[in-house]
């Protein structure tokens, strides 16, 4: 009986660590990334004209877009695959931005469409990738036992996505799997592997060098491995990044996190810190200037 409490604690911690990796961007908690996805954009790659210009996942047009995409599933095979991919993607975004009591239903719809895409077109990366992310969302909202049973499926689908197209969603399969390898406890308890995380995130940063989260996640893995100098270089690149996988607000959040971590570089690197903190110095100067202006 004395071991029940610790087991529950370990399960809860593991769910928090792994399922909090659902976001494509820098947020890693169990709360929906509302701020990161308020400006989320769905690009109409389907050719169905279902998605209006400047449509966002939190707009009042969601019902019309979903109905149009679902109707388009009856069309020729090529358009059907694209529509399934967009639906799986869109429902994940809706799950991230929805009210707490609505989130699970969106993730489950996204999972269903992603699974259908995997069965019908097993060579498409979108099916495995959005299946993994919708499962992450379900995992966040599930009881301990169910959540733990979902984690191996998440990893399996990300690995399948990697085999097809590791560059999808700005290195998304590499980024999300690399984060899971970083966050999770190591074997045999779970899927954690810092060296594997490092390899995955290095490739992600090369594939999408303007993506802030790729550099931020790589920096955090490097810090954990004791590679402070290279980590500070990656933080510098985070501050210089131009894009985020989801939104402009996500870019700001990544850079705020990088700035907080960068303050440690001076004490860690000593006299070499200035050479690895040009963007850090610029951001600090701008922050002070803006503070005075206010």
How would you briefly describe this protein structure?
The chain has 294 residues and is mostly helical. The chain has helices at residues 4-19, 34-37, 62-71, 77-97, 103-120, 125-140, 144-164, 168-183, 194-207, 212-224, 228-240, 248-262, 265-269, 278-293. The protein is globular.
What distinguishing features does this structure have?
single chain; Serine Threonine Protein Phosphatase 5, Tetratricopeptide repeat; about 290 residues; mainly alpha
Explain how this protein is built.
This protein is globular. The protein starts with a helix and ends with a helix. 67% of the residues lie in helices and 0% in strands. By secondary structure, the chain is mostly helical. The chain has 2 domains: 24-165, Serine Threonine Protein Phosphatase 5, Tetratricopeptide repeat (Alpha Horseshoe); 166-294, Tetratricopeptide repeat domain (Serine Threonine Protein Phosphatase 5, Tetratricopeptide repeat). Helix 4 runs antiparallel to helix 5 (103-120), helix 8 (168-183) packs parallel to helix 10 (212-224) and helix 10 (212-224) packs antiparallel against helix 11 (228-240).
The CATH architecture assignment of the largest domain turns out to be: Alpha Horseshoe
Counted up, domains total 2
**What fold name goes in the CATH topology slot of the largest domain?**
Serine Threonine Protein Phosphatase 5, Tetratricopeptide repeat
The biggest sheet, with number of strands, parallel, antiparallel or mixed sense and barrel status, is: none
What proportion of the residues is helical, as a percent range? 55-70%
Extended strand count: 0
Please compute the radius of gyration using only Cα atoms. 20 Å
Q: Which stretches of 5+ consecutive residues score pLDDT under 50?
A: 1-13, 25-44
In terms of DSSP E residues, the strand content is under 5%
SSE pattern, N- to C-terminal: HHHHHHHHHHHHHH
Mean pLDDT: 76
Overall shape: globular
Number of helices: 14
